[in-house]
């Protein structure tokens, strides 16, 4: 089959690889119809996520049709249309039973690697390097889906691929990022990053009762989408000296009740602090750039919540722990527990209360994946989200 | 509870331990600690080794922090010291270097021989060398001093490199292998009185400590190995006990075993997968068996590999599953067999038992051991795990 493989820094290539096979009783094989490129894939593309190997099949946002099921999969049959959550989860461990599927204790065969790096291991993830299992990803014609009797959600006939696809990751991610803030009516929420995750965090914050959402980015067309499609008040950090002061001004001096980081480890920025951060990253004194996260912390009102949806992989320097401690901030974060949001969000989509398709700016065949990565990562051609059509 | 009649006191003859039965208290002590064993308000010091290389690493950490602070507070003085004329630029550079030293030094100190931090230090050293080399190349600076500084930094870099290398190796080696002389953990708060409720407060007597220590020394001399690990499984103690108690199930999650055949009266025949062609087998018998709580077994006299194992199942309060504590003891034999056994338990024996327990958890919770990709060999040899795999007919072949 054809699959999009990571071939080194800033290089992906659609290549011929062996078809996936059923390896465990609870597996299913999905013939992929639509798959998307995520901000997390961009971190992989840039080579900043450890343990990715040349030739690995990437992609973790995908959906399609069941073509084969293992002996223990009784709830799905050949021909079912499904959307697949990016975290691989068994459904029976303590974490899964608690609904925290991205912490599944049985889905990462390379847990020992993650334990060395992080103390304990999160779940296995499709196409996300070997520290999270080294599972082949979903930017391909077929994918093997482990624990298929627990993960995939059947897609009703009246829901299109484009409506359902983002249930695999970015929609639940934006939703959880907001939900973890316990938004109360009247709250002001600030969102860093107007990529797909940021757009959905804004949308979700409004759905959850926020009265004002302020969005921060420096890419004009993304800020426009946040304003026009998600209803945010936007700030371009290139135009202002001090984001923290600007937010104070907009919130009567108190700061936003909740601050959501939808940027992650490759934040851009300017000024001396950013330069020092880059030097530290280049000399391996830190792996991640905490530029947006630091602003989110410093801006948050006393006693407020900082929610981290952006991905971080290692260590950062100059983390304002004093600001967190002395001002009673609450930090909430995690890889998204996608499973628990898929059904309720599908309901909202079916009822017409939520239309996630507004973020799609580009549709192209799988064969053009490399071009998709290029324009999405460099923010060319007003690209917000690329959907790859397969078959 | 173990019938104490059956139990021989072995504490005086440690070196023969694996051919005689363990007493009940020892069995419990050896199977690792559960939090429920530790009475409230007691100090717990786990059995741990100071890693070789720790001293050097700590020294480097302190050096880093001190130098870093000096560079931050008195950048000009440090610049002059290494032969660079103080300028606003040198001041800024010194401060960046100071910050770097401070972070990596603090990292080393708080993480011990944590390898990434040591490599971080090394990266910093390389940066220093590069900067000072630039200074050496410049005319108006004091070249002799700068060269001297360069030598010093290069020296520190070499030590960093060695420390990082040694720690890397010892970290691999000591990750979880604990030589016998570390039974001190359980003794720290007094061994649990297993004849009473199981969580009693009985203080261990000096005599017992003496015996255990003598045991430990004898065992260490004999090359005795002991590994232990623990995992929490979301199943009841009785379910887990029942699965384990049927030893024929063990190869389902212990991939180094080809088969275990029970032969009646608590006896069993164990056959390992032969890594280098040398088949290793032995007979074992159950020496302690508390339904739902504990199983201990050991090889019969005359076995190829003298070994013993204990597994304890301890329910976690508030329906949080069951802790499974396993400890294995074995005496590696010499010769070709020894090599085969070493392979069997891998270079890191602790890793093997950890993997086995993780696999046990997977089997009990999710019903299968998850593969990330197709294993290289799946012939009859890998039956144990193969048994969990579907045969091609099992999967509905529908894809054209
Ligand atoms: N927690 C999860 O489970 C999960 C799931 C999906 C994605 N993610 C992560 O979420 C993040 C965003 O994903 P995405 O798909 O929207 O990616 P994206 O790259 O499209 O979006 C990131 C946006 O942040 C902006 N940005 C960069 N620096 C900034 C700064 N200093 N201040 C404000 N904005 C800044 C960029 O211009 C860009 O628009 C990524 O880190 C991704 O890995 C996490
Ligand atoms: Zn993603
Ligand atoms: Zn699970």
Architecture overview:
The complex is a heterodimer of chains A (391) and B (400). Chain A is α/β, with parallel strands linked by helices and 391 residues long. Chain A has 2 domains: 2-169 and 337-389, Quinone Oxidoreductase, Chain A, domain 1 (Alpha-Beta Complex); 171-332, NAD(P)-binding Rossmann-like Domain (Rossmann fold), CATH 3.40.50. Chain A has helices at residues 39-45, 94-97, 111-118, 161-164, 170-179, 196-207, 220-228, 243-250, 272-282, 291-299, 321-326, 339-351, 369-378; strands at 2-8, 11-16, 28-36, 61-69, 81-84, 87-88, 124-125, 142-145, 153-154, 188-192, 212-217, 233-236, 258-261, 305-308, 330-333, 362-365, 386-389. In chain A, the strands form 4 sheets. In chain A, strands 3, 4, 5, 8, 9, 16 and 17 form a 7-stranded mixed sheet that branches. Chain A has a 6-stranded parallel sheet with strand order 12-11-10-13-14-15, with helices on both faces. A two-stranded antiparallel sheet of chain A has the order 1-2. Chain A is globular and about 60 Å long. The mean pLDDT of chain A is 96. Chain B is 44% helix and 15% strand. Chain B has helices at 24-30, 54-73, 75-81, 88-111, 115-137, 143-174, 184-187, 206-221, 237-245, 335-344, 349-366, 383-386; strands at 225-233, 257-264, 267-272, 281-290, 294-299, 306-315, 322-331. In chain B, helix 2 packs antiparallel against helix 6, helix 3 (75-81) packs across helix 4 and helix 4 (88-111) packs antiparallel against helix 5. Residues 1-30, 48-52, 168-221 and 378-400 of chain B have low confidence and may be disordered. With 400 residues, chain B is of the alpha+beta class. In chain B, strand 6 and strand 7 (322-331) form a beta hairpin. Chain B is built from 12 helices and 7 strands. Chain B has 2 domains: 5-45 and 222-399, Alpha-D-Glucose-1,6-Bisphosphate, Chain A, domain 4; 54-174. In chain B, strands 1-7-6-5-4-3-2 form a 7-stranded antiparallel sheet, with helices on both faces. Classes of the chains: A alpha/beta (391), B alpha+beta (400). Chains A and B meet through strand 4 and helix 9 of A and helix 4, helix 5 and helix 11 of B. Bound molecules: nicotinamide-adenine-dinucleotide (NAD) and zinc ion (ZN) (2 copies).
């Amino acid at each position: 089959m054809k699959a999009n493989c990571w071939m080194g820094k800033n290089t992906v290539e659609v290549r011929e690889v062996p078809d996936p096979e059923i390896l465990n009783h609870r597996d299913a094989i999905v013939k992929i119809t639509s798959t998307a490129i995520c901000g997390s894939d961009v971190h992989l593309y840039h080579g900043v996520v450890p343990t990715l190997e040349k030739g690995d099949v990437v992609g973790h946002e995908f959906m399609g049709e069941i073509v084969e099921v293992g002996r223990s999969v009784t709830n799905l049959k050949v021909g079912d249309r499904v959307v697949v959550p990016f975290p691989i989860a068994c459904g029976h461990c303590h974490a899964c039973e608690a609904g925290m599927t991205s912490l599944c204790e049985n889905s990462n065969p390379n847990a020992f690697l993650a334990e060395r790096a992080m103390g304990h291991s999160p779940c296995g993830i499709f196409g996300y390097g070997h520290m999270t299992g080294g599972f082949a990803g979903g930017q391909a014609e077929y994918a093997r889906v482990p624990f298929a009797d627990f993960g995939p959600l059947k897609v009703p006939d009246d829901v299109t691929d484009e409506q359902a696809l983002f249930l695999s990751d970015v929609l639940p991610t934006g939703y959880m990022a907001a939900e973890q803030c316990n938004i109360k009516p009247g709250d002001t929420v600030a969102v860093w990053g107007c990529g797909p995750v940021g757009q959905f965090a804004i949308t979700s914050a409004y759905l959850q009762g926020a009265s004002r959402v302020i969005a921060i980015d420096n890419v004009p067309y993304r800020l426009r989408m946040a304003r026009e499609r998600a209803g945010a008040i936007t700030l371009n950090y290139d135009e202002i000296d001090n984001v923290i002061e600007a937010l104070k001004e907009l919130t009567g001096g108190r700061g936003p009740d909740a601050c959501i980081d939808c940027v992650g480890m490759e934040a851009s920025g300017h000024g001396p602090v950013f330069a020092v951060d880059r030097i530290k990253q280049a000399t391996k004194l830190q792996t991640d750039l905490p530029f947006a996260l630091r602003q989110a912390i410093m801006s948050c009102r006393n006693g407020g919540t900082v929610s981290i949806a952006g991905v971080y992989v290692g260590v950062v320097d100059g983390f304002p722990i004093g600001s967190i401690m002395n001002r009673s901030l609450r930090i909430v974060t995690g890889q998204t527990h996608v499973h628990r949001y898929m059904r309720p969000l599908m309901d909202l989509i079916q009822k017409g209360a939520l239309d996630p398709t507004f973020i799609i700016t580009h549709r192209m065949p799988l064969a053009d994946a490399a071009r998709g990565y290029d324009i999405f990562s460099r923010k060319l051609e007003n690209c917000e989200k690329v959907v790859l059509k397969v078959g | 509870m173990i019938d104490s009649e059956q139990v021989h006191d072995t504490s005086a003859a440690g070196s023969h331990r694996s051919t005689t039965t363990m007493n009940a208290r020892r069995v419990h002590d050896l199977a690792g600690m559960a939090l429920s064993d530790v009475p409230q308000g007691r100090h717990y010091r786990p059995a741990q080794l100071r890693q070789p290389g720790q001293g050097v690493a700590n020294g480097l950490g302190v050096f880093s922090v001190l130098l870093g602070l000096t560079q931050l507070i008195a950048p000009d003085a440090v610049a002059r010291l290494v032969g660079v004329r103080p300028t606003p630029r040198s001041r800024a550079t010194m401060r960046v270097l100071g910050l770097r030293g401070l972070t990596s030094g603090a990292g080393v100190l708080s993480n011990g021989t944590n390898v990434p931090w040591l490599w971080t230090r090394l990266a910093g050293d390389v940066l220093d060398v590069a900067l000072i080399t630039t200074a050496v190349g410049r005319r108006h600076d004091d070249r002799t001093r700068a060269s001297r500084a360069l030598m010093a930094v290069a020296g520190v870099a070499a030590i960093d490199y060695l420390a990082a290398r040694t720690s890397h190796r010892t970290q691999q080696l000591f990750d979880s292998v604990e030589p016998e002389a570390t039974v001190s953990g359980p003794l720290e708060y007094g061994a649990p009185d297993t004849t009473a409720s199981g969580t009693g407060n009985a203080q261990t007597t000096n005599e017992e400590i003496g015996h255990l220590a003598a045991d430990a020394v004898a065992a260490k001399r004999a090359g005795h190995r002991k590994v232990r690990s623990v995992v929490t499984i979301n199943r009841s103690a009785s379910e887990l006990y029942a699965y384990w108690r049927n030893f024929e199930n063990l190869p389902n999650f212990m991939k180094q075993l080809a088969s275990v055949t029970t032969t009646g009266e608590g006896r069993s025949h164990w056959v390992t997968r032969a890594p280098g062609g040398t088949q290793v087998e032995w007979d074992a018998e159950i020496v302690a068996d508390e339904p739902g709580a504990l199983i201990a077994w050991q090889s019969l006299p005359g076995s190829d590999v003298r070994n013993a194992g204990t597994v304890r199942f301890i329910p976690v309060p508030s329906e949080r599953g069951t802790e499974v504590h396993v400890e294995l003891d074995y005496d590696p034999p010499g010769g070709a067999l020894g090599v085969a056994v070493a392979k069997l338990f891998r270079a890191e024996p602790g890793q093997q038992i950890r993997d086995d327990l993780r696999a046990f958890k997977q089997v009990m919770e999710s019903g299968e051991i998850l593969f990330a990709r197709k294993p290289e060999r799946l012939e009859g040899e890998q039956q144990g795990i193969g048994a969990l795999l579907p045969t091609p007919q099992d999967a509905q072949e529908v894809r054209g």
